[in-house]
């Protein structure tokens, strides 16, 4: 991770804007990096709607940021699936149309764009298993993906096929925000308390939010272009993660197992990767950052 002495020696960052600063992930990162900017604009959804180009142009014309960090997204996987195939629905308008609008403006005004995406752009199937490196190209096929994952992939393509200067940052199952019910640790803890089963056959690499904050800071400060993955290591499963978490929060809990393979056979299932996970070796080397293991992150977060 970034050395604290190095942080103090770094000058202030250029004027920047965070889209989606009021959301779960955006607010978590904002709380960690806001003191490092002389000018940091964090408009609410009412002040800035990235799906409306005229609104976006007016706001950026007024404040002229040099860096934009985009956390704005429709992230409810189950609700997103209800709009599957709808290109006029809110999921598509935010996850694809909103990115398209940001990209066009960043191209024209030479603004550096940091776009936060997800591991859900990868299928995690037997035919295309993870963990995936930063250079791995997701297959552009909606079949094995959730609608959320597919729209996030189309948003990525808006970015990578553009002439904008950008950084693409992928995350997965974020945790590190103690007061937010959307936090993955809080979700798993609720499952444990209620005696609900956790998938034991699904592989993934959750993201620790302090690691993401360090990454966003580094990329924004030096305006480093490329694709970055921010997750803990090594691969784990929701069951293994939950069992370790319970040692800290509920040592007497009976952790129950289930299988995502069986879930995917049920009616109205939402596609989920089985063999997922993101590799971070190239990101850590490029940014001179070392991410937490998921066990160390749990220990730090729960104490």
Q: Mean of the pLDDT scores?
A: 93
Helix content: 40-55%
Radius of gyration over C-alpha positions, nearest whole angstrom:
19 Å
Query: What structural category characterises the helix and strand content?
Result: alpha/beta
CATH topology type: Rossmann fold
Helix count from the secondary structure assignment: 12
Largest sheet properties: 6 strands, parallel
| Widest beta sheet: strand line-up | 2-1-3-4-5-7
Order of helices and strands: HEHEHEHHEHEHEHEHEHHH
Let me know the number of strands: 8
Low-confidence stretches: 1-10
**General shape:** globular
Question: What are the SSEs and their pairings?
Answer:
Elements: H1 4-9, E1 16-19, H2 24-33, E2 40-41, H3 53-63, E3 67-70, H4 77-81, H5 90-109, E4 112-118, H6 147-160, E5 166-171, H7 184-194, E6 198-199, H8 209-222, E7 226-229, H9 238-249, E8 257-258, H10 260-263, H11 281-287, H12 294-302
Parallel strand pairs: 1-2, 1-3, 3-4, 4-5, 5-7, 6-8
Helix pairs in contact: 2-8, 5-6, 7-9, 9-12
Structural account:
Pathway: Carbohydrate biosynthesis; dTDP-L-rhamnose biosynthesis. Catalyzes the reduction of dTDP-6-deoxy-L-lyxo-4-hexulose to yield dTDP-L-rhamnose. The protein is of the alpha/beta class and 303 residues long. It has one domain: NAD(P)-binding Rossmann-like Domain (Rossmann fold), CATH 3.40.50. Helices cover 41% and strands 10% of the residues. It is built from 12 helices and 8 strands. The chain has helices at 4-9, 24-33, 53-63, 77-81, 90-109, 147-160, 184-194, 209-222, 238-249, 260-263, 281-287, 294-302, and strands at residues 16-19, 40-41, 67-70, 112-118, 166-171, 198-199, 226-229, 257-258. The strands form 2 sheets. Strands 2-1-3-4-5-7 form a 6-stranded parallel β-sheet, with helices on both faces. The longest helix is centred in the first third of the chain and has 20 residues, at 90-109. The protein starts with a helix and ends with a helix.
